[in-house]
Amino acid sequence: MIKNKFIVVEGLEGAGKTNACMCIKNILKKYNIKNILLVRQPGSTPIAEDIRKLIKKKFNTDNLIKETELLLMYAARIQLVEKKIKPALENGIWVISDRHDLSSLAYQSGGLGIKKKIISKLQSLFLQDFMPDLTIYLDVSPKIGLERALKRNTLDLIESRSLKFFKKTRKCYLKNIKLNQNTIIINANLNIKRVTKNITKKVLNWLNKQVI
Ligand code: T5A
């Protein structure tokens, strides 16, 4: 018997988060866990999905300033956490989220240069002690990740930023993931089969330790 958990998957564009979320869902099903909610950030509620469209849109004359971008990410996050994630967890449902607040630290602080203490303040104001039980960080080189994303479709506003932006974002991810407890780091530069195999092995190992 395992109590339901909140699992987050993090990483740069093209890291393979979509594949990882599905892989975790399948592992949980093998444990006979059927109540699973899969969400993405920003998004997964009607309001948060509208915020997502706004964030990704390229405006001709009025692009988002970094502080607005950060606040929109948090607005979408709080809407999702309060409307869907917390109620699901209270009802015994497992939640897998494609990104959470570590993304804001990596992209808006590491990438865009907003002071970490501002993001920590938002985190303590709005999330308080609400934290994932497990964070899986898919570590991909920015070049490989962007090549994968580009192969799939044209790049949106954030994806169009420079390689330097993504290098700073990755550096911030790596620095902060090591400060967190309950994290798994996966080499996401490998082919999808090997990445899936490594995720399966590490998540199973973690799950076995959660059995009450
Ligand atoms: N953002 C988000 C912030 O700036 N701050 C925040 O606080 C939050 C929450 C979200 C954007 O918002 C930013 C980050 C993002 O720019 P998004 O579209 O959800 O927008 O962006 P991503 O989450 O990065 O979505 P991606 O789809 O680009 O990344 P994934 O999910 O990691 O990649 P995935 O799985 O779709 O794979 C992309 C392609 O690569 C292939 C897949 O088949 C697919 O074609 N692939 C591989 N190919 C070879 N080998 C592998 N190992 C592969 N893994 C995947």
From TrEMBL:
<comment type="function">
    <text>Phosphorylation of dTMP to form dTDP in both de novo and salvage pathways of dTTP synthesis.</text>
</comment>
<keyword id="KW-0418">Kinase</keyword>
<dbReference type="InterPro" id="IPR039430">
    <property type="entry name" value="Thymidylate_kin-like_dom"/>
</dbReference>
<feature type="binding site">
    <location>
        <begin position="11"/>
        <end position="18"/>
    </location>
    <ligand>
        <name>ATP</name>
    </ligand>
</feature>
<dbReference type="InterPro" id="IPR018095">
    <property type="entry name" value="Thymidylate_kin_CS"/>
</dbReference>
<protein>
    <recommendedName>
        <fullName>Thymidylate kinase</fullName>
        <ecNumber>2.7.4.9</ecNumber>
    </recommendedName>
</protein>
<dbReference type="GO" id="GO:0006227">
    <property type="term" value="P:dUDP biosynthetic process"/>
</dbReference>
<comment type="similarity">
    <text>Belongs to the thymidylate kinase family.</text>
</comment>
<dbReference type="GO" id="GO:0006235">
    <property type="term" value="P:dTTP biosynthetic process"/>
</dbReference>
<keyword id="KW-0067">ATP-binding</keyword>
<keyword id="KW-0545">Nucleotide biosynthesis</keyword>
<dbReference type="GO" id="GO:0005524">
    <property type="term" value="F:ATP binding"/>
</dbReference>
<dbReference type="GO" id="GO:0006233">
    <property type="term" value="P:dTDP biosynthetic process"/>
</dbReference>
<feature type="domain" description="Thymidylate kinase-like">
    <location>
        <begin position="9"/>
        <end position="199"/>
    </location>
</feature>
<dbReference type="GO" id="GO:0004798">
    <property type="term" value="F:dTMP kinase activity"/>
</dbReference>
<dbReference type="Pfam" id="PF02223">
    <property type="entry name" value="Thymidylate_kin"/>
</dbReference>
<dbReference type="InterPro" id="IPR018094">
    <property type="entry name" value="Thymidylate_kinase"/>
</dbReference>
<keyword id="KW-0547">Nucleotide-binding</keyword>
<keyword id="KW-0808">Transferase</keyword>
<dbReference type="GO" id="GO:0005829">
    <property type="term" value="C:cytosol"/>
</dbReference>
<dbReference type="InterPro" id="IPR027417">
    <property type="entry name" value="P-loop_NTPase"/>
</dbReference>
